[in-house]
Amino acid sequence: MTPPTATETTPAPPETITLNMGPQHPSTHGVLRLVLELDGETVRHAAAHIGFLHTGMEKTMENMPYQQAITITDRMDYLSGMNNNLAYCLAVEKLLDMELPPRGQAIRVIMSELQRIASHLVWLGTHALDIGVMSVFFYCFREREAILNLFEMVCGGRMTPAYIRVGGVSLDFPVGFEERLAAFLSVMPTRIDEYDDLLRHNDIWLERTQNVGHFSEADCWRWGVTGPPLRATGRPHDLRKISPYCGYEQYDFEVAVGAEGDVYDRYTVRMKEMRESLKILEQALTALPDGEHLADDPRVVLPPKERVFSEMEALIHHFILVTRGFPVPAGEAYGCIESPKGELGYYVVADGSEKPFRVRVRPPSFYNLQALPEMIQDRLVADVVATIGSLDIVLGEIDR
Amino acid sequence: MSESAEQPPEPSAPPRSQIETELRILRRHCPDAILEVTEQPARDMHWIEIRKERLHRVASLLRDTGELGYQMLADLFGVDYPEREDRFSVLYQLYSPGRNQRLYLRVRVEEGEAVPTLREVFPNADWAEREVWDLFGIPFDGHPDLRRILNPDDWEGHPLRKDYPLVGRRPVLLFNSVKDVL
Q1: With CB atoms counted within 10 Å of each terminal CB, which end of chain A scores lower, N or C?
Q2: Nearest-CA distance from A120 to chain B in Å?
């Protein structure tokens, strides 16, 4: 055999292969489909294919009375239903110029912080699972279960609570709830330490998350990336602090920030956020005001049951609110909150009727995911999985 | 540095608006862009309706003028008003992180009329414009990759239009080839 000549050994121009990932890939967190163009193990180009869960939720909401449409909102980001309820209700309440009673506000804060912890627990469990740390998942879901049980106790719903309503919340806390919440708050800090111990000293975890998936602050603004990925760059951008809603200005908490903007920083930011949420919960529970959980606003709020059963006017009032809904004065308003994933906003256009004319959702995951191809450009395939996990996307709200 | 030297007193100025600086800069650098200004300060809502030909210039001005700093396109979406002659509104929600200020730009178009793309100014307009095209059928001039994004590629019609039916059945293409995604 003759030795190969020089021309034969000259490396050919790099050949890329096209790799399809998803929509059934276990680490794409739902039905995300990525197509990667690979040069060896390096990603040269990536594109996402979304829309597998599109069910026209915005259109459905246009055809429902305002109060009923709440049940659609918690199906978008199904890991943080309470937060979705809240953002939508804030927008409608702005249109109605409503004032909420302090107890209703505090209950909303308690629910959205519990939901934040629950959502971060799902993120932590699945993210660790993707990277190869299996046991964290079981622990995270144990605590998430405790939170979902608390939700069930309050409103009967676990994933899709529809608990936060226009005007407040649907029901007051049941007997015994505050004690169970206090019991949860007493064990949770040690549990968070437990997860941290499982990961912080784990070499595989550190190797696979540090210096991976960098994104600078300027890039985040450019791509509309909000939430933990933005805070991981060191920018303390948290709507609870900079434009408080539901009385968040009364609570003492810190905004978790990172420094590098890599996958590891997003992890530390979310871990700190869970601890800060516990701080808020402690404060809200100890200072839980007495009073009504619903606003005193007959335009929107049903009359009390005793009056419905004894007074004709109250019965008619109840009947009209339930069968027709309430009209909302024409106008446009935007309600936005800091959801576990980022800035979640509802832009509601009202035309004076009982149904919204247009509901636009600003899903944080939609914009966070859009930046993914730039984050993984020229990185290794293995980093793709770590980066997707660190963005904490939910396809339900991307596709709507 | 004295502040009074920077801000010459304006005679008979109306009550200060939160977006006064924005309007002043736009009127100076792009005088024919603004069609209408609507404000609801109590709800922190400010809309500027602009001529669509000036959209690119207005967005660049708002982004690049240091004292404004609208660095983020927070959202981009359409609204359909079937009774109106220029049927669609496209809204751009801009956000200035430094000032924690939100501002809405509004462009009105007729059916079939195109809106210039903002992809060069804000890269995240890419998917958002595809979504508006998909759901409303508003084309974006200069968008290099204007495909459907939420609905399947072979879908007919634009579901968020008011005249699109709420229920109905049709076969759906769910999975297209790798080449169509890239």
Answers
A1: N
A2: 23
pLDDT at B182: 66
Query: What span, in angstroms and rounded, lies between the C-alpha atoms of A218 and B80?
Result: 33
Strand partners for B127: none
Q: Which of A38, A39, A36, A5 minimizes the C-alpha distance to A21? A: A36
Alpha-carbon distance of A346 to A94, in angstroms, equals 11
Quote the CA–CA distance of B74 and A367 in Å, as a whole number: 9
Tens-place pLDDT, residues A147-186: 999 999 998 888 888 899 998 898 889 999 999 999 999 9
A215 lies in some domain: yes
Domain count, chain A: 1
Domain with A131, as residue range(s), is 48-399
Rounded to a whole number, what is the largest CA-CA distance in chain A? 105
Looking at domain B16-181, which CATH architecture does it have?
A: 2-Layer Sandwich (3.30)
Contacts of B107 (CB under 8 A, 6+ apart): B49, B50, B52, B55, B89, B90, B92, B115
Main-chain phi, psi angles of A59, to 5 degrees: -65, -40
Going from N- to C-terminal start, the domains of chain B cover: 16-181
* Beta pairing, strands B72-80 & A342-350: unpaired
Give the CATH number for residue A316. 1.10.645.10
The per-residue pLDDT for A233 is 92
Cα–Cα nearest to A271, from A184, A365, A197: A197
Has residue A106 been placed in a domain?
Answer: yes
Mutation for A interface: B48, B101, B124, B166, most A CBs within 10 A: B124
Q: Which of A31, A57, A59 to mutate to test the interface with B (most CBs of B within 10 A)?
A: A59
- Judged by CB atoms closer than 8 Å, whether chains meet at B102 and A235 is answered as no
| Residues A35 and A47: beta-carbon distance below 8 Å | yes
Asked if the Cβ–Cβ distance from A222 to B102 is below 8 Å, we say: no
